[in-house]
């Protein structure tokens, strides 16, 4: 348990000290995720649709294109209130923090990471 918490704090430290180890995503991956969301919208289960949307959101906030990043942020903010699962909330908060970090809104990114940690620590 302590190792897990230590790993989280180490990642956060790297995040704010310029040790950006966050992966980038290219347009081919985003296009594939967009196709997957379109296919999932044609009669698939809600779970599959939500998973597809989360993959697309991940790809968008990890893009090098600012318009993709802002689109990912908008998608995540819209879906954040719809989920009661602490795990899903934590994932969305983290992805939002990545998006705001890549959009150079560092104070908002930090605030979201703190919320993410609160969710993590409240469910240990």
Automatic annotation (TrEMBL):
Its main location: mitochondrion. Coiled coil: none annotated. Pfam families: Fis1_TPR_C, Fis1_TPR_N. InterPro entries: Fis1, Fis1_TPR_C, Fis1_TPR_N, TPR-like_helical_dom_sf. The keyword Hydrolase does not apply. Keywords: Membrane, Mitochondrion, Mitochondrion outer membrane, Transmembrane, Transmembrane helix. GO terms for biological process: mitochondrial fission. It is found in: Mitochondrion outer membrane. One of its GO terms (cellular component) is mitochondrial outer membrane. It is a single-pass membrane protein. It comes from the Eukaryota. Belongs to the FIS1 family. This is Fission 1 protein.
């Amino acid at each position: 348990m302590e190792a897990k918490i230590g790993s989280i704090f180490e990642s956060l430290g790297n995040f704010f000290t310029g040790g950006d180890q966050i992966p980038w995503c290219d347009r081919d991956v985003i296009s594939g995720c967009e196709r997957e969301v379109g296919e999932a919208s044609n009669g698939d289960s809600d779970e599959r649709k939500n998973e597809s949307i989360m993959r697309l959101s991940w790809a968008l906030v990890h893009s090098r294109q600012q318009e993709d990043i802002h689109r990912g942020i908008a998608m995540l903010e819209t879906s954040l209130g719809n989920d009661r699962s602490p795990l899903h909330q934590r994932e969305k908060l983290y992805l939002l923090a990545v998006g705001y970090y890549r959009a150079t809104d560092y104070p908002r990114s930090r605030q979201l990471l703190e919320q993410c940690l609160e969710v993590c620590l409240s469910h240990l």
